[in-house]
Predict the 3D structure of the following.
Amino acid sequence: MQRDLYYKSSNKVTPVGLIVLLLATFVVGSLLSFAYLYAVQAVKMIYFRILFVVVLGVLSGVIGALICKSTKVRNRALAIIVSIIGVVAFNYVKWAAFIHLIAEEYSADFGSRLQRLPELLLNPIQLIAKISLLNESGTWVINNSSEAVRGVPLAGVWIVEFLIIMIAHLFFIDEKVSKPFIEKDNAWAEELKQTFYFREFVGTSHASSIERDPYILLDNVEDGPISTGMFLEGDLFVSSDKSENYLRIKHVTVTNAARSKRTERKIVNYLSVSKDFVDRLIDKASPQI
C-alpha cells in the first residue's frame, strides 16, 4: 500500500472529546474573562488593554490545545467549530459580567437597580440593549483631555477585541490538531527535540525538490543555524518504532544577525519520510567525535 506524500489526518474524534473541549473553553474562558475585566478596570491605558486581550486569547487557546491533545481530537474542522462556539459563549459571559461590573457607575443610563449577573446571562435581549446604551455613552478615553470613545469607533474597537481573542485562540487549536497523530500507536507523533539545519541548494523550488527526493537534504546538513543570509530549518515527528515519520521544513531569512532577527515560512509541512532517512539525518547532524 502506497503511503501518502504528506500526513493525512484520520479525522477521528470522540463525542466526549468535543464536549470536554467545549466545556473547558467556556469555563476557562469565562474565568479568564473575569480576570481580564478587573485588570482593564484597574489599568486604563489602551496599550495594556490590547495586551490583556491578547493574553486572554492566548491562555484560552493554550488550554483548548491541551484539551485537544489529552482527548486526542484530530478532526481539525470539528475542533475549530467547537472552539468558535466556546469562544462566542465565553465572550457572552464576558459582556454580561462587564455590564454587571459597571452598572452602578452608569446608573443614569442603565437605571438605578444594579443588574445581577444571572439576570443578564438569561436575558440576551436586555444585555444587547445595555450594550447599545453603553455604546452611546462611551466607556473610556484615549487621553485625559479627550472625550469618551463612543458610537461606530467604539463598536469597531469591540469587534477588533473579539477578533483578537478568536484568532489567538484558534491559532493554538489549529497548531495542535494539525500535528501528526500515529494511529497504530494511538498517540501523537513524538516531535524530536533536535532541530536540523540545512544550506540552501540549487533547484527550481526547495519544496518540490524535497518532495521528489528528501535525501537531497542530507548533502546540505549544517551543524547549527547560519548567522547570515538564508537557510532551511527542519523538525522531525516520529512514531514509536520510526516506521511512520514526518518532516517539517521552514525557509529562514536572517534580517538582522546582530539582534537575532529573522523571518520564516513553512515550505514543507509534514512530508512522509522513511526510517532510513530519519536515521541517516540524525546520524549526519550528530556531532562527530
Q: What stands out?
A: Residues 15-178 form one domain. DSSP finds nine helices and eight strands in the chain. Strands lie at 181-182, 187-188, 190-191, 196-198, 221-222, 230-238, 245-256, 261-273. The chain has two domains: 15-178, 187-285.
